[in-house]
Amino acid sequence: MESQEKPRVAFFSFTCCEGCQLMVLSCEKELPEILKHIKIVNFREAMTEKSDDYDIAFVEGSISRRDEIRKIKKIRKQAKVVVALGACSSTGGLNCLKNRYQMEEVKEAVYGKKAAAHYKLIDTIPARPIDDVVEVDYYLHGCPISKKEFLSFLTALLMGKNPDIVNHPVCVDCKMAGNICVFEKGGHCLGPVSRGGCDAICVTYGTWCWGCRGPVDNPNIDSHRETLERYGLTAEAVISRFALYGQCRQGKKC
Amino acid sequence: MKRDLNIKIHEITRVEGHGNIVIDVKKGEIKELKLEIIESPRFFEMMLRGRRYDEAQHIMARICGICAVSHTSAALRAIEDAMDIKVSRQATLLRKLAFDGEMLQSHILHIFFLVLPDLAGVGSIVPLLASHPEMAKTGLELKRLANEICETVGGRHIHPISLFPGGVVFTPKPADLKKLKRELEASFTGLEAALEFLADSELPDFSLEREFISLKSKGEYAFYSGEPVSSLGKEIDPKGFTEEVKEYVVEHSSAKHARSSKGTYMVGALARVNNNRRQLGPKAKDALKASGMKLPCYNPFMNNMAQLIECFHATEEAIGFIDELLELGPKPEPLARPRGHGRGVGIVEAPRGTLYHEYEINRDGIIESSVCIIPTAQNLRSIEDDLRAFVPTVLDRPKAEIAKGVETLVRAYDPCISCSAHIMDVSFLD
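Above: the input entities. Below: the structure tokens describing the complete assembly.
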């Protein structure tokens, strides 16, 4: 067999907590094996070497400053494959909560009038997912991403297969995990309309689905609304829950 | 030495977040020196405004992937202070156990993935796997175990799930806790190997006297709770923390800087070991002795050694918490309910130092305003002071060596830049 050069992989980070990159670093058992098959050429959080020659770009974080628009365009130009890594990158994530306010108000409230008006570093625009700016080939959802999903995605990509991105609601995962339904326990949950692939970890560990993976494609919203009404929830409470991760996709395009 | 030197390190590597170092020396005199924090600000203060109190820990954990348990804990303690919620012993033990897990995970990540490559003369853990396979594998194994502690208690380390206002909403099985305990007991060997390696490594002999601020607790080495104190012998009222410590905006940083009433101060592992050495566990005390570190220690490069000493302590402490939990016999408990509302403060020792959260929660349980002071933001002034004192001591060296030295110095603080540019506090310097 002809020996092929390993694919060159780069990791980039925009506005976020860097938890998704850290999830990659927490593949302690798999890391030595992964490194046999790919060459990581850019991973600022973990290595000194940097290269602008790469094939696959994993991008975490939202776009929330003008200079980030330029940077993500440059990454798109270079990479053959762009993967949105995690909620901030694929749906805008929690960052979009600030989009409820005018950006001038946001800056002034936090840094004061003078800095807000003059300091370039605190320039800010409404937070958005990276596909608002460039085309994205694949999405890895979640806040943070699931390690299991990342590993199976990477394996498929390296084998030349089309990676399988989960498109069933969290309820499916929750049944598989053997959890008691949150509604049955008297709580409320975004599981019925949110994208699974997370093993329903938030329900397993005692809370509810917060909707961090965004909605499934074609969610059955009518049925979910009925469910919520049946359990006596107000429209206000429901909208508020959705707004945690769904701010960016609600109403106006930001 | 009267030389000219111009260093600009764009996006320092092996730190969390985006920062540049700029140094301009003309005829041996420093004309400009700054650590630019170019991370995009996130405006958590505005993100939190108007949200329900039981979403705060979920939202605030997302300030940082590395210290998510610390932010969660500070948020919970602030919520519970504001709403007069008393949590059970079992919940406190579980939270403290997760906290030890994070302390270990964060310190191990820093020591093995970010610092050891410097000491071994390579660029990352990847070549370290080839040049020092035993050490690299030890690091990976210790980090896996630290993650497992957080997973066992909270579901995952990055943005833990079960830590919730009023208690903890998941109860680990005794068998899982016992397994953790066995693995923790076996992990001292790896820590000892790291200690030997670090003690044999040559760290720059550089000291700059300064104030250390950390929490101090009566019964234990303070991580999860305690009262803020200063090495200058001053106790600080937790509710008045923002009186003693002031944040201010500088133009070259999207993270604010901070100063105490005395000026520059440092927070983090080195500050804690200096302030609270007597409360370290027996194995951590032995490690301190073996490290050759003399206290008080003002060498910022020794922060990495202090982190390793704390790894010994966190491991000992975690084993003790597991023993107590097993004795209690862990069982599901209902959450303690809120009994009031108002202003609340939560201060913890995050891996990188004192972390302060403050919320104003109204009668309906909605968060009206918040303040959050981050360890790295508090250290930025100290880092710049260090650089200003350190650069003249190495001016006669080649430029590449100076650049590496200053980068190593910044890295020794283990800065968490995403955290520092979270930006939410509302004090102005107009």
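Note for the figure: The first strand of chain B starts at residue 5 and ends at 9.
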